[in-house]
Amino acid sequence: MNLLAGKNALVFGLANERSIAWGITKAFHQQGAKIGVSYAGEVLERRVRPLAESLEIDFVEQCDVSQDNQIQAVAERAAEKFGEIDILVHSIGFANRDDLTGPYYQTSRSGFHLALDISAYSFTALAKAFQPILRQGGSLLTLTFHASERVYPTYNVMAIAKAALEASVRYLAYDLGGQGVRVNAISAGPIRTLAAAGVSSFKTMYREFTKVAPLRQNITIEDVGNAAVFLCSDMASKTTGQILFVDSGFNILGLTEIVE
Ligand code: NAD
Fold this sequence. Notes:
There is one protein chain. Helices cover 41% and strands 17% of the residues. The chain is globular and about 50 Å long. Helix 1 crosses helix 7 and helix 4 runs parallel beside helix 5 (156-177). By secondary structure, it is of the alpha/beta class. The protein starts with 7 loop residues before the first strand and ends in a 14-residue tail after the last strand. Bound molecules: nicotinamide-adenine-dinucleotide (NAD). Residues 13-15, 19-21, 40, 44, 64-66, 91-94, 118, 143-145, 188, 190-191, 193-196 line the site of nicotinamide-adenine-dinucleotide.
């Protein structure tokens, strides 16, 4: 299938082969998209470049999304390289490790600002910078987690950032709808990645997940990649402002029964 043939896609948030951004990049490649990728900083370059080269991706740009000038520079280079953009994926999150352990009320003001800036505002900052070159029929996609709606102890300030991110999805969907651009999020179940390793209760959650989730299976980056293809393809042309769960059905549970 070539669901994304003729589409130009930019994927932000590639760190390594475990990244959700990599699952999405691979799925986009399989569906015929022309792809560019972006990573946070120099230390990741030696991991990211070989991954990109393995799919013959030659637009590989460093961008710290807390810096408006870096976002603007990537938008300008993308305009030169691709002309217009059909798909922009934001697969980025960050909070201080200290803020992802212990009680939420211990969160510092600076830790709150940092987590909200990088994990939530950056999606809006990317939308703002790329808006002039988004093609009609295009779409933006971000990654979120169910902790935005329900308490997952120690997810703390990242949960608050995800709630802000999900609200941003709805406001951006409204604003960009007139331009024919859709905005959605995937709410993924637990996946073992670099970012997940920072959450102190993650290991337990990951282990227990298959005992209680309706489908009794963990989520893979390939599962998320396939859902991303759907949301960013013309198959989802009337779907915007939505949070799509890719979590083996975990979010529907009230009381859980542990099946040994
Ligand atoms: P990951 O560590 O592979 O990806 C996180 C990315 O954010 C990294 O590439 C990192 O470099 C990037 N990043 C951090 N600060 C940045 C900055 N200032 N500028 C640019 N990039 C920056 O982990 P992941 O699990 O693939 O995370 C991707 C997204 O998926 C995150 O938003 C995360 O919250 C979300 N998510 C993850 C899970 C999970 O269980 N892994 C579940 C649901 C949602």
